[in-house]
């Protein structure tokens, strides 16, 4: 005898973009858990608040590994949240014109934040800040 379970959440899409979006939610969510837990452990368990300062971050970002790690955290968090916001817009914004407007604002802001965050991570050069600090102090 089989007992029917109540259906929770959205059904798995049958194909197309929505299927890839559905898979992306699950994969990015798992990766985000791993990256976020790793970040918390490194920044708040292994190192104390007293040890984390500007120099700590500058030393950490001297390694390409940590830049890629932080960029992946940025990219996955932003795109995972973007995907969720996209679904919320599709579910709750009914008039087509407003839906197009909301999607346009959402995608524009997401692209802007991704570009600004990527530029900060890729172009960070602590030696330029040391010159400014020496000139000011």
TrEMBL record:
Superkingdom, taxonomy of origin: Bacteria
Localization: Membrane
Family annotation (Gene3D superfamilies): Fumarate reductase/succinate dehydrogenase, transmembrane subunit (1.20.1300.10)
Keyword terms: Heme, Iron, Membrane, Metal-binding, Transmembrane, Transmembrane helix
Sequence intervals crossing the membrane: 21-46, 66-89, 101-124
GO molecular function annotation: metal ion binding
Listed GO CC annotations: membrane
Main location: membrane
Coiled coil: none
InterPro entries on file: SQR/QFR_C/D, SuccDH_FuR_B_TM-su
Identification of the protein by name: Succinate dehydrogenase, membrane subunit
């Amino acid at each position: 005898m089989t007992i029917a379970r109540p259906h929770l959440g959205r059904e798995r899409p049958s194909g197309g973009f929505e299927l890839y979006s559905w898979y992306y939610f699950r994969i990015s969510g798992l990766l985000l858990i791993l990256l976020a837990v790793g970040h918390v452990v490194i920044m708040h368990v292994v190192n104390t608040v007293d040890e984390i300062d500007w120099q700590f971050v500058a030393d950490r970002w001297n390694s390409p590994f940590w830049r890629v790690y932080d960029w992946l955290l940025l990219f996955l968090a932003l795109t995972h949240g973007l995907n969720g916001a996209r679904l919320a817009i599709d579910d709750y914004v009914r008039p087509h014109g407003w839906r197009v407007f909301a999607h346009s604002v959402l995608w524009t802001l997401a692209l802007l934040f991704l570009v600004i965050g990527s530029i900060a991570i890729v172009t960070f050069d602590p030696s330029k800040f040391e010159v400014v600090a020496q000139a000011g102090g």
